[in-house]
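Per your request, structure below.
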């Protein structure tokens, strides 16, 4: 999805709130931007500032400092927006809003609890169009500072800085929403850095120790730097210009060793100031220094608040109205003159960048078809009569696992000169930014990704695929992955129970740039399959591409001499129906292909069930009813079922043999589904080379 589309439809973003500045707990939210600022337009009213929570438009991890705080620079994982502070008490919130409107950026202003009309103090929030790395925070803050005239406090540039929000009883509260372009896309705004700098880097000296200080000390350190008082630093503390320099009686105006702010010790857990001058008030108290630094508002800076964030969860909130944005008409002639054809990775089928969905019924060959297309892109080979842009393909076989190797070998058996795509057999978590960052980094390390395929979504998504909010978050994550890698991300999905559409929320279709459906039909013994294009942004939909399967030559042999085979895709004539053969006793190629698909369907059902915890035991009869009976053609008595069970047992999904003592009808033989999450097998479980059926039915031979 392009950024323009994201603006038109509004965005959702991840942000974090903390109950207090100790930040030993956090709440992560994923809400539409409109919901964020509409909540702040009518915030929860608090008894005092001490009851207000803090807000950061970023995602933080679980790494704690020695004091247990989650709020420090090393724990910021991703940035979704900026939060800046103004406390100079000169520029009103209306004037700030006018400056933002002139710059054409999307921002929201709200006043702090210490605000007064005659002494304005406010915060500004600016969403970004997508997720960014923590290192990008400073340059976007400099851009925001430039848009507002260079008036933001220097502490705004601190990566892990967060700010109070909420209305305090008895205080004036104002807010302004300015619609416009995302800040990261408004790249013509001049950057303004603090203290005239042209770049900003977090202080590196003793950074780990500073992050572990109590929050009060961090505020003092930030303020000393913001006021330009820091002259040097060592392991003991900061050497500063004394706040009481005008009261000095010796006429010295602050040498580099005049005054120190010493880091916390057992005797002085808050840290302490040590003035080496002769002062009218010798050695002022710690609180006096704090007052001198922060003025009459020192309590706002120094006290520790406790409270809840007041944001509704997305699940409890109504769908928000789209955020109003700066509306503008463009010259149609200019648009036509600048028109460019959207680049495609597969002509008329898939765009070069974005997110695409391929869906179809279970066990009907989605992986085989998808792998065939992946080989074409990876090698730059025309697909049918369509041009293909060559690029590295990263195939995530989340459901097929290690069996993807056998399928790739089958393709290379037909096309020995083709290079196989890069492959991974571990399922990522599409709900997790961290997980997809790992995918991004691994893809970059392997090659130059042009396409990332996630097969399947259901094996990689831990949320509810019927939840609009959870699917929106997943799609946003996939869009970010596509943007980061500058490639196309394709996810493979299943049809619903009726088989007439994809499974889950309509957000999947709405947010995808391309949608393809694999259809299958069996009528009067004739088996047909094709892929239909339902959606192609900036392209035509409705075309169908028929295909069939061919059973491979033996790829190897089992210890018992039985061949190991797989399927490859055969492209059929587009002007005719897919070639099909009636099912006969002679077991034609199409019949063999259909049976191979039945085996894949059974294997998928077994793996899905084995992922559940605790493990489940099936007698042979129940196993047939649960897994094989709905496979569409393979009965439990089919000899190839033994081969399939042997493969599943070898991969650690099942154990065949005698039931554990103490279970109902002990002595039966059946299948125990174990899977990766199951506990260790009981000691009394006895394996066997044969799987027997109950009550005199035919044994599996």
């Amino acid at each position: 999805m392009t950024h323009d589309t994201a603006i038109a439809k509004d965005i959702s973003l991840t942000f974090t709130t903390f109950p207090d500045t100790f930040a030993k707990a956090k709440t992560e939210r994923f809400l539409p931007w409109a919901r964020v600022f509409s909540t702040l337009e009518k915030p929860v009213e608090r008894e005092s500032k001490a009851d207000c929570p803090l807000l950061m438009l970023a995602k933080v991890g679980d790494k704690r400092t020695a004091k247990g705080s989650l709020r420090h620079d090393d724990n910021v994982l991703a940035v979704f927006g900026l939060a800046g502070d103004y406390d100079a008490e000169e520029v009103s919130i209306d004037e700030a809003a006018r400056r933002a409107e002139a710059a054409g950026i999307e921002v929201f202003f709200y006043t702090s609890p210490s605000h007064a009309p005659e002494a304005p103090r406010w915060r500004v929030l600016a969403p970004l169009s997508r997720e960014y790395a923590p290192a990008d925070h400073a340059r976007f803050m400099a851009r925001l500072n430039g848009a507002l005239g260079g008036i933001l406090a220097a502490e705004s540039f601190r990566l892990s800085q967060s700010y109070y929000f909420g209305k305090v009883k008895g205080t004036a509260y104002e807010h302004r929403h300015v619609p416009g372009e995302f800040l990261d896309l408004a790249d013509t705004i001049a950057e303004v850095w603090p203290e005239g700098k042209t770049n900003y880097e977090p202080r590196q000296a003793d950074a780990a120790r500073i992050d572990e200080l109590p929050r009060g000390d961090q505020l003092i350190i930030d303020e000393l730097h913001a006021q330009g008082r820091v002259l040097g630093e060592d392991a003991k503390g900061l050497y500063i210009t004394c706040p009481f320099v005008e009261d000095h009686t010796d006429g010295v105006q602050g040498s580099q060793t005049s005054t120190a702010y010493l880091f916390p010790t057992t005797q002085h857990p808050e840290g302490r100031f040590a003035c080496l001058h002769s002062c009218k008030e010798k050695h002022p108290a710690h609180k006096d220094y704090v007052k001198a630094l922060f003025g009459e508002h020192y309590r706002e800076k120094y006290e520790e608040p406790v409270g809840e964030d007041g944001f509704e969860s997305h699940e409890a909130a109504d769908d928000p109205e789209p955020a109003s944005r700066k509306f503008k008409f463009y010259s149609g002639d200019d648009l036509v003159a600048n028109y460019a054809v959207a680049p495609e990775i597969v002509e008329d089928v898939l765009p070069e960048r974005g997110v695409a969905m391929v869906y179809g019924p279970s066990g009907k060959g989605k992986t085989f078809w998808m792998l065939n297309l992946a080989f074409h892109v990876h090698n730059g080979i025309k697909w049918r009569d369509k041009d293909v842009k060559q690029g590295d393909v990263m195939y995530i076989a989340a459901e097929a696992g290690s069996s993807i190797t056998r399928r790739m070998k089958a393709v290379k058996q037909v096309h020995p000169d083709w290079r196989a795509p890069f492959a991974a057999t571990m399922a990522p978590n599409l709900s997790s930014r961290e997980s997809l960052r790992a995918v991004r980094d691994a893809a970059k390390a392997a090659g130059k990704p042009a396409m990332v395929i996630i097969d399947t979504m259901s094996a990689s998504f831990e949320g509810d695929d019927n939840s609009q909010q959870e699917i929106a978050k997943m799609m946003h994550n996939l869009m970010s992955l596509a943007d980061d890698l500058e490639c196309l991300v394709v996810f493979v999905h299943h049809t619903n129970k009726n088989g007439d559409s994809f499974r889950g929320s309509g957000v999947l279709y709405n947010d995808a740039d391309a949608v393809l459906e694999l259809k299958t039909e069996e009528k009067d013994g004739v088996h047909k399959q094709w892929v239909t294009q339902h959606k192609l942004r900036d392209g035509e939909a409705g075309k169908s591409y028929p295909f069939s399967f061919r059973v491979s030559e033996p790829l190897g042999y089992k210890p018992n001499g039985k061949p190991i085979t797989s399927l490859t895709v055969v492209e059929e004539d587009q002007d005719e129906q897919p070639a099909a053969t009636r099912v006969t006793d002679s077991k034609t190629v199409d019949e063999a292909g259909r049976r191979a698909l039945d085996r894949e369907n059974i294997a998928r059902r077994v793996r899905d069930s084995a992922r559940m915890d605790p493990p489940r035991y099936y007698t042979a009869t129940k196993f047939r009813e649960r897994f094989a009976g709905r496979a569409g053609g393979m009965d439990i008595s089919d000899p190839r079922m033994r081969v399939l069970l042997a493969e599943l047992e070898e991969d650690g999904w099942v154990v065949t043999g005698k039931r554990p003592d103490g279970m109902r009808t002990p002595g039966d033989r059946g299948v125990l589904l174990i899977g990766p999450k199951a506990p260790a097998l009981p000691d009394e479980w006895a394996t066997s080379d044969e799987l027997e059926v109950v009550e005199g039915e035919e044994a599996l031979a």
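The domain at 344-580 is CATH 3.40.50.300 (Rossmann fold).

Regards,
D.
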